[in-house]
Design brief:
single chain; mainly alpha; Heme Oxygenase, Chain A; 11 helices; binds fe (ii) ion
């Protein structure tokens, strides 16, 4: 961008960060706006969303955050990601999510797991390429989305008769420090290990967005029916 050419370097990278954050936020906004009204859904549809969400998140959040740590070279970025992993493991977030799903009578079945299989595999293979900056952008998007999705997920569970909300309470807190931390990690990684030429910064974000859409809309099953 010509407008940033004469800026001092930190001002330029700050402007890049702001652009990335704005792009990610607008993708999250679009997703949140597109969510179907829980009252218009059948009980089976509400159960399906919780089950597919939990099928993806329970076994993969820690895995994907770990992939980002393995890929990352910047010490500052690694510290930030490890802090996140520390909390996930110490507070047993996967166990919390499992309790949430069971209480909502939405523990995933083989049908739920297979409904998201194709999109899930794409995200796994993408993060397995260990492309640091792309992985960090993807995880920043994931964190941001999860936080904004919690109110909706809690509403679905309540409509299924559940009052077990520890998972959605813990993850729905607007943790500005945490989100900023991931963007700081991204900036410090970009400085020492920039994105290769011709690579799409948002490749993982788009793959993950498709997976989230599959969780919510279960389009493949709807098409097959
Ligand atoms: Fe968590």
């Amino acid at each position: 961008m010509t407008t940033t050419l004469n800026m001092p370097q930190n001002a330029e990278s700050q402007s890049t960060d702001t652009t990335i954050q704005a792009t990610i936020n607008s993708i999250i906004d679009e997703l949140i706006t597109s969510l179907p009204d829980p009252k218009q859904l059948s009980s089976g549809q509400r159960r399906g969303i919780i089950a597919r969400y939990s099928s993806v998140l329970e076994g993969n959040f820690v895995y994907w955050m770990t992939a980002a740590v393995i890929a990352t070279k910047s010490e500052e970025a690694r510290e930030e990601l490890l802090e996140n992993l520390h909390e996930e493991v110490r507070d047993a977030h996967p166990a919390m999510l499992r309790r949430f799903a069971i209480a909502a009578h939405a523990f995933p079945t083989d049908v739920d797991a297979l409904a998201i299989n194709e999109d899930l595999t794409k995200v796994r293979l993408f993060l397995g390429r260990l492309s640091a900056v792309q992985s960090l952008v993807t995880m920043a998007f994931f964190e941001g989305f999860i936080q904004r999705f919690m109110g909706y997920l809690a509403e679905l569970a309540a409509a299924q008769g559940s009052s077990e909300m520890e998972y959605t309470d813990v993850h729905g807190v607007c943790d500005i420090e945490h989100t900023q931390g991931l963007f700081r990690a991204l900036a410090s990684e970009t400085e020492i290990n920039p994105l290769g030429q011709g690579m799409d910064l948002y490749e993982g974000v788009y793959l993950l967005r498709s997976l989230i859409e599959e969780i919510v809309f279960n389009r493949k099953e709807a098409q097959a029916a």
